[in-house]
Amino acid sequence: MPPRSTYRIQVRPEFPLTATAEIVDYLADLGVSHLYSAPLLSAAPESQHGYDVVDHAQVNPALGGVDGLNALSGALKSANLGLVVDIVPNHAGVGVPHTNPSWWDVLKNGQDSAFSGHYDVDWSRGRILLPVLADDPDALDDLRIEDGELRYFDKRYPIADGTGEGTAREVHDRQHYELVNWTRGDREINYRRFFAITDLAGLRVEDPDVFAATHAEILRWYNEGLAEGIRVDHPDGLRNPAEYFNRLRDAAPNAWIVVEKILEPGERLPDWPVAGTTGYDAMAEVNGVFVDPGTEAFFDTLDHHLTGATTSWQDLVHDAKLHVATNVLAAELARLAALVPEIEAAPRALAELAACFPVYRSYLPAGSRDLATARSEAGRRRPQMITVLDQLTTRLRNPADELAIRFQQFTGAVMAKGVEDNAFYRWTRFVARNEVGNDPAKFGVTVDEFHHYAAERLAEWPDTMTSLATHDTKRGEDVRARLAVLAEVPGDWTEVVRRWVRFAPLPDPALAHLLWQVTVGAWPISRERLQAYAVKAAREAGTGTSWLSPDEGFETTLRELVDRIFDDPALHREIADFAASITPPGWSNSLGQKLVQLTMPGVPDVYQGTELWDHSLVDPDNRRPVDFAARRELLGRIDDGLLPPVDETGAAKLLVTSRVLRLRRQRPELFTGYRPVFAEGRAPDHVLAFDRGGVVAVATRLPVGLSRHGGWGDTTLSLDGHSWTEVFTNTSYGGNRLAVAELLHTYPVALLVKE
């Protein structure tokens, strides 16, 4: 049986398994059925996320080890909750070699290592290239031999048997690895990485022995009843995702399996033996239906005024992806091109195809249409390369061709780095829509579109996860909800932001627009958090500064802009006043999207802490500690009869979250269908409502516009004549037509249960 709902916990050294066990009773009271944890296997030292696994054979000692897992399991079983675990099959942490036994053995013994087949290494160059040295031609002079190991400052490397005589440099030259300048990584590295992170080396889980070795501990948890669900990280990096999921399903036949598959709008999840995705597709739909699509032209005009340019999203994405393919992932491109040495122009053509690929990757033979789309667009942009493009696509269509296999792994990385980590920070006309799994060029989602997507999800993937926030989202769910209000007040926003950019200018106007939107969306925010976000955003954008080559002058100007926000009394007051003006309608949007996500088809996940207002920004900001004691105390007060107002405490959101989750857990039969419910009267377009089979969710859309047009007036909902109980206020209603003004008098959302 799939979970009724999940609650994501970022288990980490500062919040280990024992601390997680201590909040299980609160999660049970909240109403979830399953705790959904970050990865639990042994990770790199001081890892804050767990996606850099170094030892697949043990529970991370930094999290409490097997004793901690057993304590958590005991607490969950006592509360009748299940566990969903996050696993990382694509890559392993290799940045601290001595902590990863298999990688250490590969470095020591090379191709003779029992683990040489575990990692996706191109052995044709003879040695594994490790880009770790300082940008100094004499960096190897800092090598030393100590305790039978090769040392470079605090980094440790093994010495192969019989090769330890002589100077440190002489010993180094005899090893199965070569330490080189860190700047050479993107162009010369010869092992597959997770995106461009050299500390994460690709695993060959397509090998049954590697699968068995890396999944034995995880499957033990499943077989012993410690875990009932599995969340699979980054399937797009795998050589053959379908084969992998078939193998995982065979090993865990009754597990609820969801995959971190990011679907582009309109893209279908492949027919894998899984329950669905981790919910980015649902997130795009829920966020979008609370945005007014009618003001898109205002933001186009404003963006052109602020930046002095008119750049289409499609062209920006293409250019960003092409840059990533030819620079950031140049080593991976070279490995691809080496498979077609007879075609001199192969590197340029492969990069162009990747830049034009419309989705993250194909899964041949499925997805050949996406390849055809990429070929057509690449030919349009580079007509002089048509002959080469045709030669390559002939091979890229063949599922058995090594070029086709590796190209599929390549395009996903190009998309992720080019779009999520670059274009999202450069195309900033309306950043509420710049989110993973979303198309920022699609300004909003209509009510009819939302109903279509929801019904389709119920029919095809009824047990998929739905989300509003994850550890990878660019902005917290309530930041996006408040920013959606800007689409209702484009004139007001235009007036203030044009004044602010003149008062505190930045050489990169697109980045400036991003920062002003984020500032009002997350306000009040500390100086330190906004400073950290501003620098990260600027480096991701890569226009004024970058991770590889930070521009201190630009970053100083950027920090001065942030300081001015806090130090200039007039500017600080104006920002606070504007943020205050959009906060109440933002609360309405927050409650609306929370209700919709928790009640729509699928298994809803609540990201840690988001049962109250959450104005987090991109990681690591969204991994900050959560005050569970405050949430526990507030939930107790609500259960004692407090009917909280919609205010800065966020208690109304906790009320909505807990009541929906409890209802889903207690009466799952009410959530088995889907039927749109339409309003009539003065303001029907401001209602989003649907019947799940005995429970009707009602949410307010576009609250500013609703207020401008005089409120609900005679707007009514057509029900079936039964008596209904509204869950949040415990009010009874009856009749065929229900006045929306009466129903939404206390809260901008309602949940009706048929009596």
Automatic annotation (TrEMBL):
Entry GO MF terms: (1,4)-alpha-D-glucan 1-alpha-D-glucosylmutase activity
CDD domains xref list: AmyAc_MTSase
SUPFAM superfamilies recorded: (Trans)glycosidases
Listed InterPro entries: GH, GH13_cat_dom, Maltooligo_trehalose_synth_4, Trehalose_TreY
Glycosyl hydrolase family 13 catalytic domain segment(s): 10-433
Domain of life: Bacteria
GO biological process: alpha-glucan catabolic process; trehalose biosynthetic process
Name assigned to this protein: Maltooligosyl trehalose synthase
